[in-house]
Prepeptide modification enzyme (Streptococcus salivarius), 420 residues
Amino acid sequence: MIKRDELKSEYQQHQFYEYFNSIFNYDILDTSISENIYLLRKTTHKLFYSEFENQLFETVMFLSMKTLVLDINNFSKEIGNKSEAYEQYIQQIKEENGINNFFDRYPYLLKQINREVRLIEESYSLLFDRFLKDLSELRSCFNITEPLSNVEFSLGDSHSQKQTVVKIEFKGKSIYYKPKSYDSYNILLELISLLKSNNIPSFSLPESLIKADYCWQLGVDYINSNNDEVKRIYLKYGVLAAFSEIFSITDLHMENVIVSGGDLYLIDVETFFQRKLNVQTNNFEGITVDTYQRIYETSLSNGLFPVQFEKNSAPNISGISGKGGKRKKGKYELINKNRGDMKLVKTDYFQEDSYNIPTLNEKMVEPLDYANEVIAGFRECYAFLMSQRAKVKKILEGFPKLRTRAIFEILPTMENFCKP
């Protein structure tokens, strides 16, 4: 059974909390899942378990919400007072017969909930096992002396088997659990070292403890910059752009880079050799396809720069200049709450600023003002790396088992690197 007072307050007050509670109160899920959840409650830290319960709630409601809204509207058709209809519906679903009848009507929903909850349970158990196994090493590696203070799940896209980024806070420091291979981290470290040994300013990587299939990464603080530091940051953005051009690094949107003082940190380092090369032609034709294909074949396709591919495309989320703000029709919102005629409608929402743009005197700078620094950083890094092809090839050859998402085709720049 999930304890109501252990959930986030907004989940405790949710319109369909009783639906969620009935699923676990009456052991609706597969027996093995219920048994494992009970075992996890007894054996894991309360902060981890509380966040696990919140993730269960989020998952169950994400899967169920459209079905619940459809079902309550059907239930309420012949009831004039829609507020009373809602109360009757909730009373029905609170009872064991009511929740069983609901899933008799929607058996595939129950099947999907079982599948997703099982995956969450397995990924959570794996996370906690890894945390306990690595804790002493984490404290030593990151100089952590304070006790555990908070845990946050689901901070990024989920990867295989519902695994996702988890933030673990110790008073004064935070680390991030990333359940994916970070083979490219050490390659980047060596390439960055090559730049710095030749006095070329480079972006940085967060301190990390790399394991076979996952890593722990020390959190980076977003710190105000002075004028000279801002210029250095945009030189480093140019260096990062040169890296992306040569090594086909993508996914450099505003949530994957952080500025701190005079440093630029690349947060996600799994993105080697994976540029998307082929434009989806469903919405484009003729010269439009040709133009977009040309963009895809350059560093403009890496997510670092603001490139708009359609008239009504999503707002700027690029690494170098993306900002928060209103997003058009991006999320569903429930209206007519606590009524039998409730509806889900798409609505605008607000996205917070990220940490990709430096602040000078507590105010965000205008990235376009530093275009010359970006160009200078790109040119210096690109020319240097091309002149050091033999050294770069030797570094890459030292990692024959590098794993990345995909390699579609050797690009012209990489082809130049491969020449003797």
